[in-house]
Amino acid sequence: MQVDELKEHISSYAVELLKERGISKLYPPQEEAVRRGLFSGRNMVIAIPTASGKTLIAELAMIHEVIRGGKCLYTVPLKALASEKYREFRKWSDIGVEVGISTGDYDSRDEWLGNADIIVTTSEKADSLVRNQAGWIRNISMLVIDEAHLIDSAKRGAVIEVLVAKLRKINPSLRILALSATIPNADEIAEWLNAELVESEWRPIPLYEGVFYPGKILKLNEGGVIEVKAGRNVESVVKETLEEGGQVLIFESTRRNAESLAEKLSSVVRDYAEDCSDLAEEVLIENEGEMSQRLARCVRYGSAFHHAGLLNYQRELIERAFRERRVKVICATPTLAAGVNLPARRVIVKGIRRYESGMGSVFIKVSEYKQMAGRAGRPGLDSYGEALIVAKTRNEAVEMMERFVLGEPEKVTSKLGSENHLRFHTLSVIAEGIANTLEGIEDFFSSTFFAYQNEFTMRWEIQRIVLQLEKWGFVRSDGTIVATEIGDLISRLYIDPLTGYIFKEAARRFDNLTEMALLHLICRTPDMELLYLRKSDEWVEEEAYAFRDELTYFPSYYSSEYDWFLREFKTALCLHDWVNERDEDVICSKYGIAPGDLRRVVETAEWLFHALERIMEHHGNGLSVEVGRLGERIRHGVREELVELVKLKWIGRKRARKLYNAGIKSLDDLVEKRSVAERLIGKRIVERVLAEHRR
Ligand code: ADP
Hints:
- By secondary structure, the protein is α/β, with parallel strands linked by helices.
- It folds into 5 domains: 3-199, P-loop containing nucleotide triphosphate hydrolases (Rossmann fold, 3-Layer(aba) Sandwich), CATH 3.40.50; 207-405, 3-Layer(aba) Sandwich (Rossmann fold), CATH 3.40.50.300; 419-474; 497-636, CATH 1.10.3380.30; 640-693, 5' to 3' exonuclease, C-terminal subdomain (DNA polymerase, domain 1).
- Strand 5 (142-145), helix 7 and strand 6 form a beta-alpha-beta unit.
- It is globular.
- DNA-dependent ATPase and 3'-5' DNA helicase that may be involved in repair of stalled replication forks.
- Residues 233-428 form the Helicase C-terminal domain.
């Protein structure tokens, strides 16, 4: 089908724009979606492989919707994906379609998005916008769920179902378009959503899968499994691809493996890559710590590693350089497969096992493997893609072939049934006034995918949760169930009710807490991501005893909670070093974390301090002022006296310290002692700061 045939649905302007993007003909699954009623107002589930054009299907549907006066919400699982989609969709502004993005603070309403026709956001942020009753939410006429198979995710899946149920309640004629990887039970998702199902295995570039073992590759071809000759090791397989002008993406199970393989491969890759010294310098722009130095050394020769310990700018840099084909090889942890779209001619899955606590080494899921394998083949560059699992022996290779290459991905199952998800969403259902009886709450949950998949009643579970929420003071129940003021606040703050309870109790009991006690308090909540304890971390216990009298909680050595407590304390101590201006690299090596981990801990802490401040305020507890100040210090990683300086753009913790020590404590001082400042932090920076703040 030619895109010209879409004029009546999306306007000739839109068709012209597609052609400018080089899209003149629809891919077969796209054509099928159109034939099956993409423009007819039906709900649809599209379950097709990666890179087979799901996003374009959504774009067509959304443009059609916008032309008819509708408003679309496009939800993705990660912030990074939201930015990627936002950049893509912004092209539509050329024909007057307003595109917005919302990924900011959880308790804001982002009312300016009222004018946007298409809004890109994460599922969590979308749910928080519903909770905070953003005025424009009721105008949403179409919901697009990207990566809908992630309903299966233990951590982030439940929110997708609840969001669907809530938006359908707000607008019963809401149209839903769910985009998913190929999964065996897409039909269930379609039936739950009352949607037309478009399923296909079609790919724009053929994908060949196989298993490598030293000297050979077992390959699955149209005719069946064949055995072909290959090199002795992974390096030789990589080399072969580079010789043919292709790029390689390698998945490892751990960060450490990804890093050392990238280092090892850089001596192979350097013969095939141009000089990337400029990129290596860029890697070090904001951080020169050990990990960044390692990354820079690899990148210089066109090899890189990619994992959650990298800083955002480093990840984006590596992704861009790979797309531009300057970086030839990326060794990544599986997080990359779930994230941005980064195809390569060859995908090598080295980490086919993963360590799980209590279970040791286990095989990854077939669906995870398929997600990685699906990244093989770059549209427009490669005539085929190839995915290879790495095995040690022929026997193992045969086993891998059967389990993964020929295996069927697991079914997607709802994760809403777990107590913490149910508790979290039950409070919001009550606070938003969606339901005010047990039957009403049950009725609400009966429209979720969980209820679709499970026949048993949720009545008892819900009753227990409501009782718990009542005990905590978040709901009142005398015939009807309503949220108390604090319950409503907690729902809007988007924190776990248990976190809310811990904060509420602290607000009630204490009017004086030290810095360390406050830091430990937020680390006691289920919303904090805790650092792990290493064998060499005995010092944590010693430090904990030194702070023993200050903390709000200190379990006995014999308590089953003791080890967990040490993790909480270690995380709090890390934040303590951060707000007391310990050097970032020193912190990273002391706690055994990477810069990206530190940023995540800091970001979560900042959010929790904001919530704690609001709850303290609500209780009229004067500690709220201190909490607010500490939150500000966490954001910037500084002592109190630098807060004013770090609020200035371009002034980070290091520059602020230099200025402060020279007696420059504010913007006025900076103006007055300009030459001193220029000597300390550079003329260009001072100029930028003044241009920004002295208009
Ligand atoms: P998915 O969302 O299914 O992973 P994308 O929508 O990102 O895949 O599509 C992958 C690439 O294919 C994108 O670069 C997109 O512009 C391109 N593409 C999609 N549809 C077409 C088409 N009909 N013709 C040419 N290129 C297309």
